[in-house]
Amino acid sequence: MKIIIKFFDRLEFICHSIGLAAIFVMMMVITIDSLGRYFFNNPIAGSFELVQNYLMVAVVFLSISYTYKLDGHIKVEIVARLIPDRVRDVLFILTSTLAVVLFSIMTYQGWLKTWEAWINNETIVGVVAWPTFLSYVWIPLGGGLLTVRIIILAAEKLARVFPRPASGLKNKDWRISR
User: Fold this and answer.
1) 14-64 pLDDT per residue, tens
2) Model-level pTM?
3) CA angle, 65 as apex, 17 and 124 as ends, to 5°?
4) Residues with Cβ < 8 Å from 175, sequence gap 6 or more?
């Protein structure tokens, strides 16, 4: 299991790195477009579509799982601090189950939309005919990564809430000794 988690961590980091590269490309495109627009009256054709439909989606969805792993999302903890650790872990497992269902549906629907755009050769109408599947593909990829990350973290909490019995003890003995 540790090998699988290590592989997943690497995959997640690679996707996050691609998301970081997308931020850099987005920054460069916007800067060059602005300079071209204001100094040379010649903006980059299709830069708005590229940033809005491709780079922003890649930034959000490729980094969402890695950010979740680092506990980097905004959250309100005023009430959570008052709840005992064990109860908080159980609540985490329950909410994680709901999140896995939600993100599994989102991942599946994103995959269907990506596949449909690929099969039908859909493009975005504009100055540049961008293929839409390149915009959609980040949603199932990021959603799938987040789903797996939530399962991993929930399994860790589950192991903490319900620890395995020590070797040499039978399940019956273990439960009585608690």
Assistant:
1) 999 999 999 999 999 999 999 988 888 888 888 888 898 899 999 999 999
2) 0.82
3) 70
4) none
